[in-house]
Amino acid sequence: MTQIYAYIPFKDGVAADVALEFPAAAEKIEAGASVTAVVTGSGADLDAVAGEMAKIYKEVIKVDNAALAYPNAEVVRKALVSILPADAVVLVAHDTFGMDLAPGLSVKLDSSYAADVVDFEGKDGDVLKIVRQELGGAVSTHVSTDLSAGAVITVRPGAFAPAEGGDVGGSVTDKSGDAGDLTAKRTFLEVVEAEVGDVDITKSDVLVSIGRGIEDEDNIEVAQELADAMGAVVSCSRPIVDAKWLEKSRQVGTSGQTVKPKVYMAMGISGSFQHMGGVKGNPFIVAVNKNPKAPIFQVADVGIVEDILEFMPELQEAIEDL
Amino acid sequence: MEILVCVKRVPDTAENEFELNSDGNDLDRDDLVYSVNEWDNYAVEEAIQIVDEAGGSVTVITVGDDEAEEVLRREMAMGANNGVLLSDDAFEGSDGKGIAAILKAEIEKGKYDLIFTGAQADEGAGQVGGMLAAMLDYPYASLVNKIEVDGTKIKVGREIEGGNQEMNEIELPCVLSIQTGINEPRYVGIRGIRKVAKVEIPVKGAGDLGLDAGAVGEAGAKTKRVDYFVPDMGEGAEMLEGSTEEIIEKLIEKLKAKGGL
After folding, report:
1. Nearest by CB: A116 against B124, B229, B239
2. Domains and CATH numbers, chain A
3. Does the interface predicted TM-score (ipTM) exceed 0.85?
4. Bigger pLDDT: B53 vs B152
5. Rounded to two decimals, what is the model's pTM?
6. Cross-strand partners of A59
7. Which of A60, A147, B41, B208 has the smallest count of CB within 10 Å of its CB?
8. CATH, range B2-220
């Protein structure tokens, strides 16, 4: 029986949504596998999360240390290497913390590694069958990884069904005494909060959101005019902010804003999971993209294969004529 | 400041529509357009800017075949001083750890203060930087979108959820994975490429690096890609077809119904 450990990320005493998704991921690795939640942190926040996890997981390990109060990946890695068996199968979220932690953890545990997994197709002996994506979600791949000496696997948040409510009455084991040396060559200083922009895209019911398909900074005006006609606000995907064409506060995605509009107009946006991770509340999604294979068409409600630079002005005109 | 930047030649997601080959197990690679991984341009730009301020040199390195040399030349045209190509049939089929082990062998022959990778590449794993750091026992920070150099310590900003930035102090030498948006990579013209066309780029294989061929490549890989496929994603979007006027008419009806107008 595979022994699986799930590292639970949390903030301010509340576990991330992915904490509810690890059990379904583990079940797909091996039906009936035992899953232990691991929480590291300090004080009341840690105890609150450990208590919550004991409703979902039969076994919870907690490691309490002042050095773990903020999740510094180097410190967390040291603690995990001290408390986990070398052949553990460790599940980590593929988020900004998991990406910091997991690759190095797999080296220190001398185990195999697989990143950003969207599905598992069970085991064949010691070989785990994995589904992931490449090239920004344009293609999917089957990947195999050898579990015989353990594995560290990051799973995509939102890819697995969340556990239902209820209480399994699990127990919390305190392994704080086994954490070992937690000194690190990297020191956390502070979190700098995102700047508030001139427009709050999270407050708008309708977003005209632009991506690479806008092609040029001067074309943003075309999107703005459509947004004006619709009574909407212009938001964007990451490349537009990287190019400094719009402020960071306009960016939708896991590294930008989380929005919950009624209607989301994805204009020339390919639809990476990082971008769609910022679109919540099940809006009506309209995707316009000249590439018929753009991943956005898999998640949109309505798709149109057109060049947005030609389509947006025509749509604007038609709306103004209503 | 001696800076090494690890780069990769990848299929360009902006220039290609990806199709499977006739066997349905690999990409149809015949007409693929390749370029340098987007994240790597930001890493090279950042390295050049640091060296402009603090002195030192920038070396770009890649693990790949003969064709990978072109991405080294492109980054040297940006302003990197040296290029190194790590190439050997024995490297083929390496997983993330294999690539990190190959890079580590070369890094240990030099003396670098900073090692950069892109935050991720074509496979979307974001794994090599963190593995390399752990193998070297160097500190690591991923998704770096700000670097302030101050003597032997540096401050780095990491991009975290919600557009927030996590500031850290990190000892040198260290490995950093660089996120897009940290700077504006300079444009490389054809003239720049020509200037570096004749510069010699050393090529090193497993023997030169003192690597056991069985420990890297497919033989050493615990994680292997089996095939590519097109997933069954259910119905997907309702595609509106017809003339642009017809499409717009249908779209407006839907937008009205859904509160978009």
Report:
1. B124
2. 3-178 (3.40.50.620), 201-320 (3.40.50.1220)
3. yes
4. B53
5. 0.93
6. A36, A171
7. B208
8. 3.40.50.620
